[in-house]
Amino acid sequence: MTIKQLRQKFLSGDMTPLEYMERILEIIREKEREINAFTHLDKTDTLLKEAEIWTRRYKSGEDLPPLAGIPVAIKDNIAVKDMPLTCASKILQEFISPYDATAVKKLKEAGAIIIGKTNLDEFAMGSTTEYSIFGPTHNPVDLERVPGGSSGGSAAAVAADMVPVALGSDTGGSVRQPASFTDTVGIKPSYGMVSRYGLVAFASSLDQIGVLARNVKDAVLVARVIAGKDRYDATSRELTVKGVLESLDTVDGIKIGVWKELNEHPAEEGIMTVWDEAIMKASKEFPMIPVSLPDIASGIASYYLIAPAEASANLARYDGVRYAWRVLDASTYKEMVKKTRTIGFGKEVKRRIMIGTFALSAGYQDAFYKKAVAMKYKIMKNFEEAFKQVDVILVPTSPKLPWKIGEKMAPSEVYKADLYTIPVNLAGLPAISIPAGYVDNLPVGIQVIGRYGEDEKVWAVADKLLSLWR
């Protein structure tokens, strides 16, 4: 049931927002213990009271905003006033946000009920949602497996029907990869389409707030609500986005590009089988044109210098003075900062801070960081040339199926799982991951990638493809 259908039930009286909230809370009570999708849930009484207010307003017949009475979950690196903002890190475990992120503010203005905060890899650094002080999140598709990361809590909450929609953040695939792993839809907007104000910074030139939902139309509805230029974010832009409840664009005349070099960088065998079948089905509706993207496989090397470098600068603010948690058994300021960061940051966060600090250090900036930035612009050029031939490009979302929780993998192997998603962030492009099939009952997602600012076209094609593949 889409949000639009749910609103129709609210309007007709077949269901009330209060009844729906009671149903949602019951699902959470049944499933949360085994899934661990949330880091914080608002008080039940508060949620029921808010749902009751919307119930009365629906019965009054007044004109209501597009998300009136709809529960939404928020990744715990996005600020919600008076809720914890922990980033799943010990160093922020006591911090309560004093304000709403712009995206959250827009959701509230649209009538959404913020139900709680979802689990993530610490400071959004990871691909599994295992690196969290709250413990790992389990994939509702298979509880022994990871839901992807870093927005795994948001993806799991949506996949388990705990909420119809959730916000995540996407720095190198952190919305799209969990969507692929959990059989959900994940939107990564064009860079700047959604304000980053209130999103705790990881890599500022790459971060973007995204949306997870069960279907394209719900994800698009919420993406339209949170889009728009914001005076609090100088990188935000007023991109062309339709009215919230308007229909998706037509797909007449759309030409789809297929990544020519995929066989040089193939996914697991089962994923490639799903890919081939999906391309064959899509070719019955769209012209399919091979396009060359020769450098995007170098995106991982570029990303894992640029993102850690920006992270090392962004995370320097956590010194035990300005935020919630610090060690108390230090005799000097320097010792306090050292101990706070040593204990407060997890292993993966410290690894990336060290990589980034090294890449920016004297004597190495030219050898590493500047070359990584040059490769970023080369990847952008690849996409620019490809889009001269086609309107959108298809690429698998992940080269790997969701692996088991606790599976021992070298960090470099985990990083390679972002092979197909990272180039989109480096180029700042819009993309959406949609379900394409299954391998041994595990879901496989495929990305639709578009030109900068052409999010609406990407969403329309994705909606059509999803109807072909399901």
Describe the structure.
The protein has 470 residues and is an alpha/beta fold. The chain has a domain at 301-366. It is 39% helix and 13% strand. The protein has helices at 3-12, 17-35, 44-60, 102-109, 152-159, 176-182, 216-226, 269-282, 299-314, 333-344, 347-360, 365-386, 411-416, 422-427, 455-469, and strands at 38-41, 71-75, 113-118, 165-169, 185-188, 209-213, 256-259, 288-291, 392-396, 431-439, 442-450. The chain has an eleven-stranded mixed beta sheet with strand order 1-3-2-4-6-5-10-11-9-7-8, with helices on both faces. Helix 2 (17-35) packs antiparallel against helix 3 (44-60), helix 9 (299-314) crosses helix 11 and helix 9 (299-314) crosses helix 12. It starts with a helix and ends with a helix. The mean pLDDT is 96.
Which descriptors would you attach to this protein?
single chain, 470 residues, alpha/beta, eleven-stranded mixed β-sheet, 15 helices, globular
